[in-house]
Automatic annotation (TrEMBL):
UniProt keyword annotations, A-Z: Isomerase
Name of the protein: Trigger factor
EC number, UniProt record: 5.2.1.8
GO biological-process terms attached to the record: 'de novo' cotranslational protein folding; protein transport; protein unfolding
Organism annotation: Myroides odoratus
One protein family per Pfam: Trigger_N
Matching Gene3D superfamilies: Trigger factor ribosome-binding domain, Trigger factor, C-terminal domain
PANTHER family, A to Z: TRIGGER FACTOR CHAPERONE AND PEPTIDYL-PROLYL CIS/TRANS ISOMERASE, TRIGGER FACTOR-LIKE PROTEIN TIG, CHLOROPLASTIC
UniProt xrefs under InterPro entries: Trig_fac (IPR005215), Trigger_fac_C_sf (IPR037041), Trigger_fac_ribosome-bd_bac (IPR008881), Trigger_fac_ribosome-bd_sf (IPR036611), Trigger_fact/SurA_dom_sf (IPR027304)
Record has Disulfide bond as a keyword: no
Gene from which the chain derives: tig
Superkingdom assignment: Bacteria
Domain Trigger factor ribosome-binding bacterial: 1-144
Taxonomic lineage of the native organism: Bacteria, Pseudomonadati, Bacteroidota, Flavobacteriia, Flavobacteriales
Molecular-function annotations in GO: peptidyl-prolyl cis-trans isomerase activity; protein folding chaperone; ribosome binding
Length: 441
């Protein structure tokens, strides 16, 4: 057997495997001998079928199978031994006049090679690292939300702007008959809101579905209809008022503070806001960190230049899936997936260039940290070691969970690396301003 490689260019190569008869004939003979022992052919006793008949019936198919198995094994070993970093899978070069009876069988395989490049984390970037703070306006909103959440509903005689209504939406032609609880403020326009003011239990209000709420998803939920029905729906619906309630806010007193945080942990509105601020900014930090990670990679995608074996990859895509693609379909799929491939290559290069590795102990330690954090959320701030170890063992027996946790642990390592190396502009923003930065709204 002989294996050689011809590097066509920096991104493409041809690997040639030559198999002499003595390389594969022993395997072929063994398989055919087993066929002969077990073959049931009319007119012959089991095991007494002539080899010539076995060869005629099975010879070519066994030869193809055994040669193919040997090719796969030798090619895979060669790629490992040569430490070749390839994209996609090797593609056999098809030959119309291949001679399976030749003394030496010669097979060519096309390879798409991963490009050589480096990443520069310390160069100039336009990346911003956000520090999200819970401003006073947000803290006031959260305090009010807590008051409403722990408040109580008080029945009212007539509808006011702040009322919450329990009733039924109906439209016989559209098959709408849905009991709902809805606030007057949920209706998008003041015109529709005013239609409900001063109404009483038993009254009916007719509104049109067009522009009734901020979006069609809200309309779907309220009317109990599906996506196809809601699209372009413009009909009158009747709302029958069954209850009129008003949310009475809970008082900001020690009873509420103890209910939220435990006995005497918080004793004032100022301390309540400090707690809300602390918890909120922890959650904000993880969102800001994720955006920072994403933005660094986007910056690297823009500034890290390398070529890909595009022609090879398009050819590989034509046969890679369960359903073969045409050349046009493969080209379209390549355009869709090219950015993702570049992202993966850059991510892999960051790991190798900066020697970011995860050991089993790293994953186990990270899992332990996650479990302790989750238990703390349920009030178990000091769980015993045996409880934690048992949960960690169960989690790590699930391959999908291990994969997910490994990604989180590697992201944490990358975040630490980027924070240390990347020259980012640090910007302090409120959460509302951060959302605008994220979504442009």
């Amino acid at each position: 057997m002989n294996i050689t490689r011809n590097n066509v260019d920096a991104l493409n190569a041809i690997v040639t495997i030559e198999l002499a008869k003595e390389d594969y004939q022993g395997n072929v003979d063994t398989v055919l001998s087993n066929y002969k022992k077990n073959a049931n052919v009319p007119g012959f006793r089991k095991g007494a079928v002539p080899m010539s008949l076995i060869l005629k019936q099975y010879g070519k198919s066994v030869l193809f199978e055994e040669v193919n198995k040997m090719l796969q094994e030798k090619l895979n070993n060669y790629l490992v031994d040569e430490k070749l970093d390839i994209l996609g899978n090797p593609l056999p070069v098809m030959s119309e006049n291949f001679d399976w009876d030749a003394d030496v069988l010669k097979f060519d395989f096309e390879l798409g090679l991963a490009p050589e490049f480096t990443v520069d984390l310390e160069g100039k970037t336009k990346v911003t690292k956000f520090n999200i703070v819970a401003d006073e306006a947000m803290l006031d909103e959260q305090v009010e939300y807590i008051q409403k959440q722990y408040g109580k509903l008080v029945s009212k005689e007539a509808v006011e702007e702040t009322s919450e209504l329990v009733g039924t939406f109906t439209n016989e032609e559209e098959g709408i008959n849905k009991d709902v609880t809805i606030a007057v403020a949920d209706f998008r326009t003041k015109t529709n809101q005013k239609k409900f003011l001063n109404k009483k239990v038993g009254d009916q209000v007719t509104v049109n579905t067009k522009g009734l709420f901020e979006d069609d998803h809200k309309l779907m939920d309220v009317l109990g209809i599906d996506h196809d029905q809601v699209h372009g729906l413009e009909v009158d619906v009747v709302f029958t008022i069954n209850e009129i309630n008003e949310s009475e806010k809970a008082e900001l007193n020690q009873e509420l503070f103890d209910k939220l945080f435990g006995q005497d942990v918080v004793t004032s509105v100022e301390q309540l806001k400090e707690k809300i601020k602390e918890d909120a900014e922890k959650q904000f930090a993880s969102q800001a960190d994720q955006k920072f990670l994403n933005d660094v990679f986007e910056s690297l995608l823009e500034t890290t230049s390398f070529e890909l074996p595009a022609t090879f990859l398009k050819k590989w895509l034509m046969t890679a899936g369960e359903t073969p693609m045409t050349a046009e379909q493969a080209a379209e799929e390549y355009e869709k997936s090219e950015k993702g491939l570049r992202y993966q290559l850059i991510e892999g290069k960051v790991m190798t260039q900066y020697e970011l590795q995860l050991t089993f102990e790293d994953i186990k330690a990270y899992t332990t940290k996650l479990i302790k954090e989750q238990l703390a959320q349920f009030g178990q701030t000091e769980p015993d070691d045996k409880t934690v170890e048992d949960i960690v063992a169960r989690v790590m027996s699930n391959q999908d969970e291990v994969r997910r946790i490994s990604e989180q642990a590697m992201n944490e390592k990358m975040l630490a690396l980027f924070t240390d190396k990347v020259k980012a502009n640090v910007k302090e923003v409120s959460y509302k301003d951060f959302v605008k930065e994220m979504y442009g709204e």
